[in-house]
UniProtKB/TrEMBL annotation:
Organism expressing this protein natively: Phycicoccus endophyticus
InterPro entries linked to this entry: PrsW
Keyword Hydrolase listed: yes
TM regions (residue ranges): 26-49, 55-75, 87-106, 126-151, 163-182, 202-225, 232-249, 261-282
Name the record gives this protein: PrsW family intramembrane metalloprotease
Keyword vocabulary terms for this entry: Hydrolase, Membrane, Metalloprotease, Protease, Transmembrane, Transmembrane helix
């Protein structure tokens, strides 16, 4: 823990990052942007050359539809302590561009190698069941590991692992759906396109996110563990479970017919229901954790007991935002939102400190967040603190 919290001081102005840190951030963003652009150009060129520009655009438009179901689910899960938008966009682009492109290269190479030892159908089936799950789950999970290793201040545990994993997997599924939809339309016209849309986009839009979320949970467990064993074994266990579930799903798809229906009804539907229950539990758990780790700040006078209760419940948070808007207008509403986000960040930072998972700047960052809390409170009660 952080020790004596002290009395609430006057709000401090956050210091700007050093020029070296700013330059490094711009360099990383530039390199990442160029990488995403190159991957996008390669994928779009491949899709256009293989299926034609019109078919590729039609498939892209159809593949967007399930994103309207999947993305809001993970944003809903992320409401207590929202991740920076730029990182969520990067997660989606990693899945849709980099992971999808590299997976296509590895999977195609595996098919070519296997065709030298067996017939084409067997090579495709073997790749789908034994190669693709290993490769794809590794590539999608790599982004979650990246955030944990290099952006520890933005990674607070299981919920964040699920969010980054789900958004990355949604991007991967988006690109994969474009290819399958375009192939179906090319081979069977509108009827085949509709059948593929129903099977992939309506009946199983959460397939890839469900697989990769297991890796995210493993990384989240590792991020909040004190001993080395969970930090090493939890991500590996999550990844292996993701590979097994993914491989089972692909096996059913390759088998087709009654086998696919049986796996869908007896395995995928129960797994999906369990997944929904787990997502709801994870969100409620995060609210309880926020309340638990904010109580020491209430004891020290930084927060009131009623504020801790409000910050622990999404329903109470909505009521507080309505009150702030009525009391201080749009600026008060914005201040209340910032107050809530800052309090969540503070609670989860204290949790990392409790688990010895915080970085060297944790204490300074804690003071910055406490000063921000005081400043934002002054704004939404109509008494700006100077």
């Amino acid at each position: 823990m952080s020790g004596d919290l002290g009395a609430p001081p006057r709000p401090a102005v956050r210091t700007r990052p050093t020029s070296r840190r700013a330059i490094r951030s711009w360099v990383v963003a530039g390199v990442g942007g160029v990488g995403f652009l190159v991957a996008a150009l390669v994928l779009s060129s491949y899709l256009g050359a293989t299926f034609g520009v019109q078919t590729a655009l039609l498939s892209l438009a159809v593949a967007v539809i399930p994103l309207g179901i999947v993305i809001p689910t993970f944003l809903w899960l992320d409401r207590f302590e929202s991740e920076p938008t730029r990182y969520l966009v990067a997660a989606f682009l990693w899945g849709a561009l980099v992971a999808a492109l590299l997976a296509a290269v590895f999977n195609t190479s595996a098919v070519v190698v296997l065709e030298s030892a067996t017939d084409p159908d067997a090579a495709l089936a073997t790749t789908a069941v034994l190669v693709a799950p290993v490769v794809e789950e590794a590539l999608k999970g790599a982004f979650v590991l990246f955030v944990w290793w290099f952006l520890r201040r933005e990674f607070d545990g299981v919920t964040d692992g699920m969010v980054y994993a789900g958004i990355t997997a949604a991007g991967f599924a988006f690109t994969e759906n474009i290819q399958y939809l375009a192939q179906a339309y090319t081979e069977g016209g509108g009827q085949a396109l509709t059948a593929t849309f129903v099977a992939r986009c309506l009946l199983s839009p959460f397939a890839h996110p469900m697989f990769t979320v297991l890796t995210g949970v493993g990384v989240g467990v590792a991020a909040t563990s004190r001993s080395w064993a969970p930090r090493l074994l939890a991500p590996v266990a999550g990844y292996l479970l993701a590979v097994v579930l993914h491989g089972l799903w692909n096996l059913a798809a390759v088998s087709g017919g009654s086998g696919l229906v049986a796996v869908y009804v007896l395995v995928e539907v129960p797994v999906f229901l369990g997944y929904v229950v787990f997502v709801v539990w994870a969100r409620r758990r995060e609210g309880r954790l926020i309340g638990r780790f904010l109580r020491p700040y209430a004891d020290a006078g930084w927060l009131s007991r009623s504020e801790v209760t409000m910050l622990s419940s999404m329903g109470h948070r909505r009521e507080a935002r309505m009150w702030a808007r009525a009391n201080a207008g749009p600026r008060g509403l914005a201040a209340m939102r910032d107050f809530q986000d800052t309090a969540s960040e503070l609670a989860l930072l204290r949790r990392r400190m409790y688990h010895d998972a915080a970085d060297a700047r944790a204490l300074a960052h804690e003071r910055e967040l406490l000063a921000d809390l005081a400043a934002r409170r002054g704004e939404f009660v109509g008494m700006p603190v100077r």
